[in-house]
């Protein structure tokens, strides 16, 4: 898990599958282990989160790579995250 972004309005975390310590390959999958990488976007204003995986995660990864090339303003990043936050349905639960 890697924190990519944290502001007053949003948190973005990149979730990665855990590699098998012996081989470096993805470990045998216990019930709660990730199959593939994804991104969790938390909208602090609404207290909701959305998890992007599969094609959504790949599109978001492309957005991140574009940001690395162009160095957007915080307003541009927040605007893009706000569009994804519209997908958020799950309330944030502390555990």
From TrEMBL:
InterPro entries: DUF3567. Pfam families: DUF3567. It comes from the Bacteria. This is DUF3567 domain-containing protein. It comes from Comamonas flocculans. The lineage of its organism: Bacteria, Pseudomonadati, Pseudomonadota, Betaproteobacteria, Burkholderiales.
């Amino acid at each position: 898990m890697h924190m990519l972004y944290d502001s007053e309005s949003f948190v973005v975390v990149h979730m990665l599958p855990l590699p098998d310590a012996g081989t470096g390959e993805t470990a045998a999958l216990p019930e709660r282990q990730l199959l593939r990488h994804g991104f969790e976007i938390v909208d602090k204003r609404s207290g909701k989160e959305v998890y992007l995986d599969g094609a959504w995660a790949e599109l978001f990864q492309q957005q991140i790579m574009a940001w690395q090339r162009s160095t957007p303003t915080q307003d541009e990043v927040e605007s893009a995250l706000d569009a994804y936050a519209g997908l958020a349905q799950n309330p944030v639960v502390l555990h």
